[in-house]
Design goal:
heterodimer; A: alpha+beta; 4-stranded antiparallel sheet; 2 helices; rod-shaped; B: alpha+beta
Chain lengths: 190, 156
């Protein structure tokens, strides 16, 4: 009898205890793995929205700094302005800037089209209009504001544009960005 | 016992690693906001200098750095609407946190944000303003900073 008992490896109780401990540890590890996958996914989403945001802000602020005054109302609705919110819509901005790809001035506009930030430029030489998206569909922009100060040449205030970007990426990532740009061309009235 | 100890240590270690990564992502997002707020600080001071240049044509007695205190004393009072530094219209709380009114980071209305923007302007030379902007924020006990510096010259 004793021999038989010794040969049998584990009792039922030992097996149950062993399996229980094993499964508890296994479920903890599995849970950890699931959490890290989720974290990884949200990190990637945040990273993507951060890089898109910094790209679009650099792009826009560089363009806005280099704006030229409109002296013939060919782009803006009034002569002698540097910037204009299209139709008084603060989520849109229009201005003239030199377009290096065409080697001529163009009328630029930044606006929001269905949550995507879009640039349109109309050549002041040929009148040809081209548009391009500056952000992808993954980046949902909740709010875009261009606040103008001193945009008219008939004051001694150098034009200033405040850019506000409020966006939601995937996985509930939220980001509020604000920056201000001062036009580089001095706003001397002409 | 030994096996359980090793497994537990490993699991806890891995878990805290993941938690830290999440916090860092949060810090990175705020760092981007802070960087642009710092840039705003520099641009506003530059804008005041350029506006002085426009004004000096009709008011020849105006100093090129009028309204910009180059005392070297750090001050938090400046926002996107400011036309002088320090801006006396700017009323920040005792902790100098920038406020957020639903659209703008500003110094009058809204709830406090986590950001503080300290600006120090030193006049190292009668023709040079040394502008130092330091935006700091605290996340989960850790304080982070973005520091930007620019020299503005009397070039007219």
């Amino acid at each position: 009898m004793d021999n038989v008992k010794n040969k049998a490896g584990f009792t039922l109780v030992e097996m149950i205890v062993g399996i229980t401990i094993f499964s508890i540890i296994l479920s903890a590890v599995a849970g950890l793995f699931a959490t890290s996958l989720k974290a990884q996914r949200s990190n990637l989403a945040v990273e993507e929205s951060l890089s898109q945001t910094s790209y679009v802000l650099e792009y826009m602020s560089r363009a806005l700094r280099m704006a030229k005054k409109d002296l013939s109302a060919s782009c803006l609705s009034l002569r002698g302005y540097n910037y204009e919110n299209t139709n008084n819509d603060t989520s849109k901005i229009k201005f003239i800037k030199f377009d290096y790809s065409q080697n001529y001035d163009a009328c630029y506009e930044f606006s929001l089209q269905g949550g995507i930030l879009q640039e349109s430029r109309t050549s002041l030489q040929t009148g040809v209009k081209t548009t391009q998206n500056l952000t992808s569909a993954n980046l949902a922009i909740n709010q875009l504001v261009f606040k103008l100060t001193g945009e008219n040449q008939n004051n001694d205030i150098q034009p200033r544009v405040v850019i506000v970007l409020n966006l939601a990426g995937r996985e509930n990532s939220q980001l509020q960005i604000q920056t201000t740009v001062s036009q580089r061309n001095l706003d001397v009235n002409e | 016992m030994v096996a359980i100890f090793i497994l537990t240590t490993g699991t806890v270690g891995a878990f805290s690693l993941i938690r830290n990564t999440l916090t860092f992502t949060n810090v990175t997002s705020s760092q981007l906001t802070a960087a642009y707020l710092a840039q705003e600080g520099i641009e506003i001071v530059r804008n005041i200098r350029d506006s002085n240049w426009l004004e000096v044509r009709t008011n020849p007695g105006l100093a090129w750095d009028d309204g910009i205190s180059g005392s070297g004393n750090p001050d938090f009072r400046l926002d996107y609407q400011s036309s002088s530094f320090p801006d006396n219209n700017c009323h920040l709380g005792i902790d100098n946190y920038l406020k957020y009114d639903g659209t703008y980071f500003n110094c009058l209305t809204g709830n406090n944000t986590i950001f503080q923007r300290k600006i120090t302007i030193t006049k190292s030379d009668p023709n040079v303003l040394n502008v130092l902007v330091e935006v700091s924020f605290t996340i989960k006990g850790g304080t982070h900073k973005v520091i930007v510096q620019e020299n503005l010259y009397k070039w007219h």
